[in-house]
Structure formats: structure tokens, C-alpha cells
Amino acid sequence: MNGRLAGAIARRFDLAARGSTIPRELLAGVTSFLAAAYLVVVIPSLLAGGGMDHGAVTAATILVIAVGSVAMGLYANLPFIVGPGIGGSVILGVTLAQVDHVPWQIGLGIAFLSGIAFVILTLTGARGIVVRMVPPQIKLGLGASIGLFIAMVGCRDAGMVAINAKSNALALGDFSRPGVIAALVGLAVAVALQVRRVPGALLAGIVAATLVGIPLGLTGLPPAVIAMPASVAPVSLALDVPGAITLVALPYLFAFFVAEFFSTLGTTLAVGGKAGLTDADGNLPRIERPFLVDALTATFGPLVGVPAGTALVESAAGVQAGGRSGLTAIAAAACFAATLALTPLAMAIPKQATASALILTGISMLASIRHLPGDEPADLLPAMAMILMTLISNSFGTGIAAGILVHVAVQILAGRIRQLPIGLILLAIPLGIFFYGAATRH
After folding, report:
1. Are 146 and 270 in contact (CB under 8 A)?
2. CA of 34: how far to CAs of 66, 135, 193, 237, 405, in Å?
3. Ranked by mean pLDDT, which of 47-61, 68-82, 242-256, 337-351 comes out on top?
4. What's the whole-model pTM score?
5. Is 169 exposed, middle or buried (0-12, 13-18, 19+ CB in 10 A)?
6. SS3 helix, strand, coil % of the chain, rounded to 5?
7. For residue 276, what is the DSSP state?
8. Calpha distance 204→353 (Å, rounded)
9. Closest Cα to residue 335, out of 91, 35, 11?
């Protein structure tokens, strides 16, 4: 790379101040891509189950991730990849379309209205106010909560843990299965290199697991390297907004909103903290920038045919690999954009291969729990409730909401209601309604 160009890139992304380099950022971007590449398979599968065109939603998923991540890198200068999350995809493709028989066009309309609400709250500064209201003990527990979720996703993808889709009950997987064996090989390679401080340890683990997966039958050499991407026409601009403006759709709108709001909040604070970008109080400076990017992506996604976009927890894998700036997000976006033409090659990476990166990243984030105060139950209970609810519900967005609700309840029971911000008390009301609705649906 030309020295002048390299210098301009380093200054644009403030690499010196963040203790990073261009090669490290590019490697981190590739690592983030590989850790999140399974979404290109999982999300379209969930949406196709709800009646949407599989090829179209695959192309739309890649497009939204690429556009959202570039925007995050250029505008917010943060190493977060952005795209449709599994939570929103489950609500649209499974809960709405398959369980409650709501047409996916109306589901996209509901997701779009949720995105509009995000944009309004971001531009008015309301989202930043909510972040400042979140108590410090919740912020300190975010890393552990999300780390647990990430590690559990990795174990689930590897087949080490089985999760009942209806009850979220956990069970030990079959360790003799090819997927578990490949994941364990990748994990062993990544750990061996990581403890020796070899750069690219997570990436090496993913490559090793993929290669082992070929003779085990998990994957194979792609029949072609380059293929024309599918058109997004069958799902783009197909959303039914008028059909989404009904009282019946209101609970689903709130479900989209709660899931994406707290998912983004948790990812930005926890992953930002892992990257050393948060301040002493656990807040991310200029947080309104990543919030605006994810709000606009949440609006853009339903227009092209996928649920609202959010900052993805898989960004933590890139941060673990050394990513500290928006250059990481842009490098990941370039990899995703390439998969539009290189879909057969990208699809050759089995989800078991990315499990080692997710497991090690999640474990590293669990260390944040040691900063929790240990002598005051009122401080410990909300964080512990958040971590436990994340495990029970298999959703860290739900876990964060539970932690905030328990914090409000504990403070009231302790006679400290005057110490609670009025906004936090008001926030607890819809959160309580959300949990009541979730409980009565089961």
C-alpha cells in the first residue's frame, strides 16, 4: 500500500490513538466476517420458513450487512458490523408468519415502523437519555451477559449444546458427531495460538475447523467459486405498512422494538468496553452516532426485505482479534459484499467452523463480571438476573430488559425510590407489560 495512502487511512480512522494498525484492522474485519458469516445461512433460512423467497432474502441479508457496516465504519468509526439479527428474524419468519399466520409483508411493515421509531428517538436524543439512565451495575454486567450469550451460540452451532426451540431448555450435545469434532479441533488450534499470542488465532481456528469438516462431511469444495447473486425483487418494497397499523400488530411492534433496542444497547456498550472505547462509567462517547446508523439500517432493512438491522454481537470476534476502529467494520463489509458473487465459497464455511471464535470471544467477555460490587445485594441481583435471564430466554436483549426491571424493583423494595430516575421508572412499565405478555403467550 502506498505510504501516503496508508497514512491518510490511519489518520481518518484514528488508528494511532487507538493503538491499532491497518493490517490488524483488516484481519479483525475478516475475523468479524467469518464469525458472522453463518447469518448469511441462518437468517434466510428463518425467513424462507415464513414464505419468503430464499434466494432474494439471502441477497438482501448480505446487502443490508454490507451497507450498514460501511455506514458504521465511516460515520461512527467503530468496529461494529450491522445487520439483521436472529431475534428479529425469528419474530418475522417464525412467530408472525408460522405461529400466528401473519403475512410476512405485514411483518416487514411492523419492522419498518419499529425502525422509524428508532430514528425518531435517536434524533431527539431520547436513546442517549435511556443509556445514561441505565444503572452502572447493569452496564458492568453487560459484558458477562452478552459473553454468555455469544459462547452459548458457539456451543449451539458446534452441537455441544442442544436447545429446545419451544422451551429454550438446554441439553448436552453428542460429542461424537462430526460437527462437534470439527469445532473442537478449531477451538484447540485457536487456543494453542492465542496463548502464544499469535496474531490471527481466531481466524486460524475457523480455517482449521473448515478443513477438518471436509473429510467429516460437514462441507465440501464448492462446485464453483463465482456465481451471479439472486435478485432482491421478490421481497424488496413488498412491506405492508397500512396492514401493520392496527391494534393487533401493536404487541409485535413492541416485541421488535424491545429486542432491537436492548440488543444494540448491549452490543455497543459491551463490545465497545471490550475494545477499550468506553469511559470510566461504562458509557460510549458519541454513542448517538452508532445509534443513528443502526436506526437508519433498521429502517432500510425492511425496505429491501429483511428485518430491522442492529449492531451484531459477532462484532466482538473482530474486537478480540484487535479491531478498534471503523476500518474493521468496512473490511468486514467488503467481505460480505464479495459473498454476493462468491456465495458458493462463503457457503462452504460451516457454522461449526465459526464456533471456536464465538466461544473464545464469549469466554473473554465473561471476565467483566469481576468488576461487580460483591457486598451489596441490591447491586448484585439486577446483574445476576440479567445473566440468568439471558441464559433462560436465549436472548440477551430480553436479559438486559430483565436486569433493568429487577433493578427498579429492588430499589423500590429497599426504600430508595427517590434515587431512581423518573425515566427509569417509566421505562419499567412497558418492560413489565412486555414480560407479562411473553409469559401469557406460553
Report:
1. yes
2. 14, 34, 18, 29, 35
3. 68-82
4. 0.71
5. exposed
6. 70, 5, 30
7. T
8. 10
9. 35
